[in-house]
């Protein structure tokens, strides 16, 4: 199957007319996007974009061969234009299957939000899954009690519904070889980061975006974004490092959130911080409150999000009595070094996907006490040793993530 992206934006497009915001100002050239619409093999049109005939002509295509126009969602953007000669657009009832004269089969999928998803099977058996904005398949995304098969390509709202992508992965509909394309890219914060930041965020989810007018072949090999097995996210206080770490695993199923801080009775501020983190996490994630990281890293299992290494270090330094100068000099430093070495070795050997968070305190104010300086120095050493075992290291500053490796 060959498909042409007549548009890849949200229903209102990007940039928004007369909007002065920075996102819209950066949405120029290839990052400007009309409402999403997809032309399949010149015969099937999924959704409509403003000026579809002109959009097709700019992409070197024609709508003259279109025999079916399917709508996937209630349209809240500019008024839909149906060029003369096109069939009347329709929405297919859930679980109904169409057999087109072109040899394509289209199955309408029930969704967890208003709209309809379409599983398109080409004449040669390639499978394309198309989902509307803000939606994911209901349940496992199957039909007639059967499991939806593995798809060669998926077009969906990746940044708006990473949890839906996680469910598709858990169901085996999206695999390591599935080409995941982000569409319905819009003005909202989750998708309103045009340019390199948009593509960086998508790559962490194993997805990509293409400009309007791009023509692709379903099932043709394309380099899937390389998702690192181990990532360290560094940053100062309230820099956005935890949000960045959570975003990197939001599109993957069964994540284990490893909270190293535990609970602190009588500390309402700490309780509020913990609650904030819990509310952000997907309901499908499980939580382990522990500083015993080596067994988790050594076992097989789903991805781990460790938040954070600085609290792990605090716990380890408490246990080796690192705050006492005499005990530190006598044996505390050696005992802590052994614990750090064991953790680093476990990271080196792990087969799990790991995203770890740690504070970057070395660029701040020099601590006034020997114990404070000791913690700063040991955290710097731990971060450096942990980073050495990671394929990717990221620094967050003012909510902006910048890859260091």
* Uncertain residue segments: 141-145
Q: From the alpha carbons, calculate the radius of gyration and give it in angstroms.
A: 25 Å
Instruction: Give the overall shape, derived from the CA principal axes.
Output: elongated
> Total strand count, please?
18
Order of helices and strands: EHEEHEEEEEEHEHEEHEHEHEHHEHEE
With strands numbered from the N-terminus, the spatial order across the biggest sheet is 14-13-15-16-12-17-18
Percentage of residues in DSSP E strands: 15-25%
CA-CA gap between termini: 37 Å
Q: What features would you describe in this structure?
A:
The chain is of the alpha/beta class. Helix content is 28%, strand content 19%. The strands form 3 sheets. Strands 14-13-15-16-12-17-18 form a 7-stranded mixed β-sheet, with helices on both faces. It has a 6-stranded mixed β-sheet with strand order 5-6-7-8-9-10, with no helix packed on it. Strands 4-3-2-1-11 form a 5-stranded mixed β-sheet, covered by helices on one side. The protein is elongated. About 1% of the residues have low confidence.
């Amino acid at each position: 199957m060959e498909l042409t992206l007549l548009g890849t934006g949200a229903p209102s497009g990007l940039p928004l007319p007369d909007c002065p915001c920075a996102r819209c100002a950066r949405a120029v050239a290839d990052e400007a996007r009309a409402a999403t619409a997809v032309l399949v093999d010149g015969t099937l049109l999924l959704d409509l974009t403003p000026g579809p005939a002109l959009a097709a002509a700019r992409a070197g295509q024609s709508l003259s061969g279109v025999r079916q126009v399917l709508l996937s969602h209630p349209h809240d953007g500019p008024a839909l234009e149906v060029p003369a000669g096109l069939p009347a657009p329709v929405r297919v009832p859930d679980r109904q299957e169409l057999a087109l004269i072109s040899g394509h089969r289209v199955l309408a999928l029930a969704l967890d939000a208003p709209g309809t998803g379409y599983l398109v099977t080409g004449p040669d058996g390639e499978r394309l899954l198309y989902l509307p904005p803000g939606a994911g398949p209901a349940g496992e995304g199957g039909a007639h009690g059967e499991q939806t098969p593995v798809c060669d390509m998926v077009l969906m709202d990746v940044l708006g519904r990473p949890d839906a992508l996680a469910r598709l992965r858990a169901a085996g509909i999206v695999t390591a070889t599935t080409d995941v394309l982000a569409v319905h890219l819009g003005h909202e914060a989750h998708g309103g980061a045009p340019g390199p930041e948009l593509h960086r965020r998508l790559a962490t989810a194993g997805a990509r975006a293409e400009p309007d007018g791009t023509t692709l072949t379903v099932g043709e090999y394309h380099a899937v974004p390389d998702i690192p097995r181990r990532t360290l996210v560094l940053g100062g206080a309230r820099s956005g490092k935890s949000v960045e770490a959570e975003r990197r695993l939001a599109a993957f199923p069964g994540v284990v959130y490893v909270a190293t801080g535990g609970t602190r009775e009588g500390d309402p501020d700490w309780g509020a911080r913990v609650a904030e983190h819990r509310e952000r996490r997907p309901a499908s994630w499980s939580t382990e409150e522990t500083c015993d990281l080596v067994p988790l890293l050594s076992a097989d299992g789903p991805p781990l999000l460790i938040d954070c290494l600085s609290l792990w270090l605090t716990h380890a330094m408490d246990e080796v009595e690192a705050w006492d100068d005499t005990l530190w000099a006598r044996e505390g430093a050696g005992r802590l070094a052994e614990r750090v070495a064991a953790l680093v070795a476990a990271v080196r050997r792990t087969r799990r996907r790991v995203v770890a968070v740690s504070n970057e305190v070395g660029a701040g104010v020099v601590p006034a006490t020997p114990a404070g300086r000791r913690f700063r120095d040991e955290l710097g050493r731990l971060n450096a040793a942990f980073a050495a075992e990671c394929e990717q290291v990221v620094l967050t500053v003012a909510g902006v993530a910048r890859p260091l490796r």
